[in-house]
């Protein structure tokens, strides 16, 4: 059964969790605080602030989850707690 | 038995089976297109669309019938991450996402993007904080986990209350959606349409439980995403010359902004890309937060991740889910922009004689109003507009219902009826797949948590499965009756689901996994306080007859009630846990086990000892 340490497994998992939460918070809220400033930039017709809320942040979320899954998998294997 | 005939061969050939299915569906669309050209009436086309897709879903449901408990509750934990992602996307995207999201964006502009953000970003929380750990634990339901972690039936019972509160009105809205689609595309009166939809939903879920729902949801996702993309892709091609709407609606946005600034008849229109024209910043961000945390707390979503073969697959599956959801949600603003451009160019500022024909198609269904009357015919609006003293349609003279933007796009783009029928089939798939997931979540909680765990712990398998099906049937009928006879005000309750689930479930799930010190007393007190505070705010501030219509606190809109309830839940849970003894060593060891991917499901080894 799981020992309390497992090569610092839980510490590393927590570290990854905090990183993900910071990125999530940034793309969910922080970036949209600056919508007025971003809207003064236009790319392909999209005001950047509008684009961030309609596409940019969503793309970031998708990438973040796949990155998290790969990173957590790596932690699992390095700490010897991965599933067979 | 279906179990043997379907087992390994089916799972090994998923790619091939669904590729053939997708090809077959596209071929069917083309065939109906040809039939329409040779003169088959529209109503027949609509019937064939809805009829055939219903038959296919029901067929999958029947083929997936099962008499095994783990197949019924968690699809045998054998659903690959990719397909579970598709099933979750269909589970998640309701009839309203499909039909009304683009319309909300049309009406609200930038502020409507709070829904787009809120209904996607929550999956980060699902992946990182909750789903892999619930999968490792190995529960059949969310209340099952709460009971094991917080030692007993009180936590289980609270989990069930939250689940039912968040799911029942939601399922009523879906059943209503199927009835409306049956009414519009099949010409069946709404009251009967509801029961036609219900019959399809039951055939998909009753015989095969989670296993059947999973494989129908995959099939439904394929239909709904094809149906969603085709009209707007063609629209984009017609307007901009390039069939990639998500990239090209930037052009439309620019033209909209220009028209808003220059066209006189558009005076009073809110600027589409300018923030905070409908919500203030506090409400915009509060809504995002409540929808995101609500997403990570809704049992019918979380339970989909119980079906993956491993913890690793559960994590990856959340990524696939969001990718498949993203495809629809990042297309919705394109629908809104193209529809708005068409309306601003060809409707607003035009003389009454020059209006496009699609206005009258939907005016007949009372979905488009001009000068205050349904746009049934030119004469009708001429009368009304002359009384209003205008010869042309000004911005304030034109009203369109938000669930028409997607459905009307084929006609706006001048496409044949077959595409409209396709959109109808897509909307039906979206409403049915969500209804299936919700019904199963509720029925499983009642049959597994209440009947098996709380009433008869020694019930034999066959009786458990019969009870599960009887309850499923009962809830479905109750939902259909509510959809038929209850006052339409009940649909407003759907917006409450997210805040209620967020405040009731999220603190207990997150602290239960991430904070060992969290104990039974804390969890129970926190769930009651968080859920209670949210419910209180909802009822206190909602307009009659749902509530007392009192003044909002700090101007926070009713829909974001979780802004108060979620922190209250967390604080009460932490403070009460700190004031009472820490959980037993065994419980803390169980938390360690839940955190460690290795070693199989926890519940399995602790069956009987955990509750």
Question: How would you concisely characterize the structure shown here?
Answer:
The complex is a heterodimer of chains A (84) and B (611). In chain A, 73% of the residues lie in helices and 5% in strands.
Number of strands of chain B: 3
Estimated helix fraction of chain A = over 70%
CA radius of gyration of chain A is 18 Å
Number of helices of chain B: 26
Mean pLDDT of chain B: 92
Q: How far apart lie the N and C ends of chain B?
A: 34 Å
Radius of gyration of chain B: 25 Å
Secondary structure tally, helices of chain A: 3
Beta-strand content of chain B: under 5%
Mean pLDDT of chain A: 93
Give the strand tally of chain A.
2
Main pleated-sheet profile of chain B: 3 strands, antiparallel
Order of helices and strands of chain B: HHHHHHHHHHHHHHHHHEEHEHHHHHHHH
Stretches with pLDDT under 50, minimum 5 residues of chain A = none
Assembly category = heterodimer
Give the low-pLDDT segments of chain B.
Answer: 1-6, 605-611
Q: Strand order, biggest sheet of chain B? A: 2-1-3
Provide structural commentary.
The complex is a heterodimer of chains A (about 80) and B (about 600). In chain A, β1 and β2 (about 45) form a beta hairpin. Chain A has helices spanning about 10-35, 35-40, 50-80, and strands at about 40-45, 45. Chain A is elongated, with a radius of gyration of 18 Å. By secondary structure, chain A is mostly helical. Chain A has a two-stranded antiparallel ribbon with strand order 1-2. Helix content of chain A is about 75%, strand content about 5%. Chain B has about 600 residues and is an all-alpha fold. Chain B is built from 26 helices and three strands. Chain B has a three-stranded antiparallel beta sheet. The model of chain B is unreliable at about 1-5 and about 605-610 (pLDDT under 50). Chains A and B meet through α1, α2, β1, β2 and α3 of A and α7, α12, α13, α15 and α25 of B.
